[in-house]
Write a structure and sequence with these properties.
It is built from 16 helices and 17 strands. With 378 residues, it is an alpha/beta fold. The protein has two domains: 240 residues, 3-Layer(aba) Sandwich (Rossmann fold); 114 residues, CBS-domain, CATH 3.10.580.10. It starts with a strand and ends with a helix.
């Protein structure tokens, strides 16, 4: 358990990096610290193991005031993972993993057994990797070793300072998943600094969102998505991520922008070629002012391809759509009522702005189901 009680950090130029921070992190909890650059999240993390000394307030780690603990002993009991990894290039993977264990007086056999055990946790064959050196590993593999080194001495608390920030998106996502699996097995107390809201939402038990050295909101991911504390939280999360009622989400928020169009005076062969190139089976037909005239499908064009004429000649004059400002609920009802899988989105002048499809609604409808389920419980 980590408890911050009115903690502050003020630098010599009187800059307040952290202001009156009070926060309790339970044992076995994974908490992410997130916020804009300069908000104090990394400073907060580094005060836990006294890499940065607090100016005021108290931090308790497992019931002990860290000011009364020897800094070296404190750090040996807390795992620490950084973005730069910091593996020792002249040491083997086994030696890198157990470097803290060796400082604690572990035998060579215990170090070896612990390194083998940890490598198996992340599906890295000890027979292959134990005697390799860091330069022989990929960036993702090196970061895995960095995490294992933090776990090696079995600390109750692990600090992680943007550990996956320098990795490519695919490797980063894999390591996020592996961290979640490790946490489910080991139940460590993890404080994780990130600047990526998607990462925080994926891995955290609770998110601590900071701004200008202060905590703005502390909440589990689902609660923060449903009940953001203020406009800053909404803007930082991004409105597209918020879990809202279907009556609150407007069609323009989830529509596909720039749908494939064709002007009504164009020929059918051109329309068919445009479908082929853009990999679609329908086109939004517009006039020269980009006002919606109708929709033609590949079936319509195949039926009329041997006739002379334009795309506009295939239109029957009836088109179903929705206007900006209408809600997702209204769009869903309209789709169901007419038995169609797409809806053009237009403005008050009839200008085409976007397209609603069943696939574009999948994410928001999933959120709607969760919203409805939770509302029914209340």
């Amino acid at each position: 358990m980590v408890i911050f009680e009115h903690v502050s950090k003020v630098y010599n130029d009187r800059y307040e990096a952290v202001k009156d921070l009070s926060l309790e992190i339970a044992g076995g909890e994974l908490v992410t610290l997130i916020g804009p650059s300069g908000c104090g999240k990394t400073t907060t993390l580094k005060m836990v193991n006294r890499i940065i000394e607090p100016t005021g307030g108290t931090i308790h780690v497992n019931g002990k005031d860290i000011r009364e603990m020897d800094p070296v002993q404190l750090r040996r009991g807390i795992g620490y993972v950084i973005q730069q990894i910091g593996l020792f290039p002249n040491m083997t993977i086994a030696q890198n993993i157990t470097v803290v264990g060796k400082l604690l007086g572990w035998s060579k056999q215990k170090c070896l057994e612990r390194a083998e055990e940890l490598l198996r946790l992340v599906d890295m064959d000890p027979a292959v990797y134990l005697e390799r050196f860091p330069k022989e590993l990929s960036g993702g593999q090196q970061q895995r070793i960095g995490v294992l080194r933090a776990l090696a001495a079995e600390p109750d608390i692990i600090l992680m300072d943007e550990p996956f920030g320098a990795l490519d998106p695919i490797t980063r996502e894999q390591l996020q998943g592996e961290l979640k699996k490790l946490q489910e097995k080991l139940h460590k107390t993890i404080i994780f600094v990130t600047h990526d809201m998607d990462e925080a939402l994926k891995i955290a038990d609770r998110i601590v969102l900071m701004r200008d050295g202060e905590v703005v909101q502390v909440a589990p991911p689902d609660e923060m998505l449903r009940n953001p504390a203020d406009e800053f939280v909404i803007d930082f999360i991004g409105k597209n991520r918020l879990l809202r009622s279907p009556d609150e989400v407007k069609v323009e928020e989830v529509m596909i922008k720039n749908p494939v169009t064709i002007e009504s005076n164009r020929g059918l062969a051109e329309a068919l070629e445009r479908m082929r190139k853009r990999h679609v089976d329908s086109l939004m037909v517009v006039d020269q002012q980009e006002r919606l005239r109708g929709i033609v499908t590949i079936k319509d064009i195949q039926t009329g391809i041997h006739k002379k004429g334009s795309v506009g000649d295939l239109l029957d004059g009836a088109v179903v759509g929705v206007q900006v400002g209408q809600t997702v609920r209204e769009a869903v009802y309209t789709m169901a009522e007419h038995g169609i899988g797409y809806l053009p989105v237009i403005d008050e002048t009839g200008k085409l702005l976007g397209l609603m499809t069943r696939s574009s609604l999948v994410d928001i409808l999933t959120d709607v189901l969760w919203y409805s389920r939770d509302a029914a419980k209340q």
